[in-house]
Amino acid sequence: MSRVADKLIKAQTASAGIDDGSPFDTAIAVGRYYLRVITHDVSDPTSLSTLDSAGTGNGPIAISYNGAGIDRTNKVVISGDSTFDRIHATDFSNPAAVVSTQIYSDATVLDTPRGGCGIDEARQVAWFISVTPNTLVGIDYSDIATNGGSVAGSIALSYQCYGLGYDAANQIVYLTTGSRMLSYDVSNLSSISQLDNLSNSNISGCRELAIDPVTEVMYGAVQNGGIVALDISNPSNMSVLSRNTSGASNFCCKVDPNIEYAFGLSGTGNIYSYDVSDPSSMTLDDTFTDSLIPTASSYYRSLAIDTNQKLLYYKGFSGTDSLVIISYADPTNLVKVNSITSSQAMNVFLFNR
Q: All domains of the chain, ordered by start, with CATH?
């Protein structure tokens, strides 16, 4: 097996902004306000349908700074609830009858979980940012059916962080705060250590992170505008390669390493397509606009990617919550494929039934 192919396979479980592998046939959206979980059949992107819509009740409240992640191996979505300081697990083993339950709650250890979620499928650990006090927390969800969740490991942070990216293949957590990027070695859950503390003005406002495992470059959506590329080949000595400031108010970022393009979802009603074949000189190749893309005043925005079928999925809101699919078969000309009425949920993920 080639080094590139090996890295791509490892990336499938890295929660790193790349969803590779066989074409996905199901989308699940979770979070916001009460328990809003919905699954959609997307096996034919031109003909969408709803499989299940869980009812109401106290559930994941995933507003804009909350996090969630998918574990496709164990068929569960882990999501944070910033209002009630708790974690929820949504079992999607039967996409036509999903079940969401609270698995962990502790306002002392897990206060206002926010800023993303990193899933380690092998160890069944979900990484969250906690505030007051500022902490990186790993929640063990391996025994959620009987005992709920527990703290697998944690480390105090010197900063209040806003974005989280996870490289599961190398067990490295990346955090953003202000104009800094922090990296942590979480391979030993009982002894987590900080590797680097990079300060650079180009990181300011960085939110969702997407890792290209082939080039070992991490891309960040910049709320202040554009995307930033960082060299993470040595997590102990990170560096900024470049920043493209084109594209306003990016909150979400996904990357397709097969064609070397990154995509940003903004808070201004746009999706941006960036050519990142040269991370030191990225270019904006297309801007896609749609009335259903969440604006800056919306509580929720999310982006998922199917790199096999060259499709982007985003949660939209314009009077009616929607799941919208666009094609990037030609990344210089993004095209809307379809949309379907969805739930009041921020986080969207893809999997196979």
A: 3-55+158-351 (2.130.10.10)
